Amino acid sequence: MTGPAATALPERMRAAVWHGAGRPLTVEELPTPQVEEPGDVVIRVRAAMFGASLVRAVTIGHPRMTPPSVLGTLVAGDVVAVGDAVRRLAPGETVTLDPHPPCGRCDQCDDGLPALCATRSGVTPGAHAQYVRIRPPVTAHARHVPPGVSPATAMLTEIVACVLDATDTADIGPGQDVLVIGCGPVGLIQVRLARLRGARQVLCSVNHPWRRELVRQAGGVPVDSGDVSADHVAALTRGRGPHVVVEAVGSAATYTSAFDVVRDGGTVVGFGGCPPGTAIPLDVNAVHYRRIRILGSYHYKPGVFEEAARLLETGRLDLEPLLTHRIPLERIADAVAIARLPDCLVPVVEP
Ligand SMILES: [Zn+2]
Question: How far away, in angstroms, is 75 Cα from ligand 1 center?
């Protein structure tokens, strides 16, 4: 079954194709995804993320990504065709997507862990393409982007949702001292959210001098990454250490630092993803007698994506300073090099 608007789509489109770890992305012509089922929606991509996880996938591979494929899940764009059963969305509307809404049926969903839902729905073929198709349940979680929010900002809603979930789970709130280890997009969004939640002081480790100003813009206090030691951080937090330390780098060294500096009764949030098998020596005596709380934070609960979108719509979370680089599809072969530039925070693919 094909919706009437689908016939207007070109037969072929350009997309960035990944052919395996260590090989450059290439621009190729593929069939344009069409409305094939009544619940289908086709979107013309305006902005797609090329984040750190994709840099890792392109260069060293990913257990859930099989080449050849079109990568990318974070996307914002314009609806161009809808199936006959679609009521919520119409051609001409700009939307962003929760790319992995939980299925509600698998074991993880049953166990109250929708963030770990085994079903990967996503977008077809992938976001680094001129057009993508989405199907239920993703269509039910498409979010209209209001005129005041740019597509590139809206594309970051999923990341904001992840950080919002970490913020809530760690109970970051008024009067607290918080340390964020890592000054990438996640770290800088975490600084902003902690301040919005009323944290007294939010320290953020920086490894590039130019990022000091970004931390200040976000309402935080920059700390050189080489100075994240128990003594130095205690001196900056009334001698006690931070109530909450968010590890947003993903390395054994920075996880170790997080446990070194957190205060008695404090919380260490594991936000950064490390390679499988990464281990650190952990003083479990201190975990017990100092009542250290350890929280793994990955993805988010249902409803948090919508909360993140509403927050972006209020204008209280300005993410434009994070959108440092635009990558036209024709330059996709340079995307890894661009993403690794020291002054690159969020590279936006614009097909
Ligand atoms: Zn599930």
Answer: 22
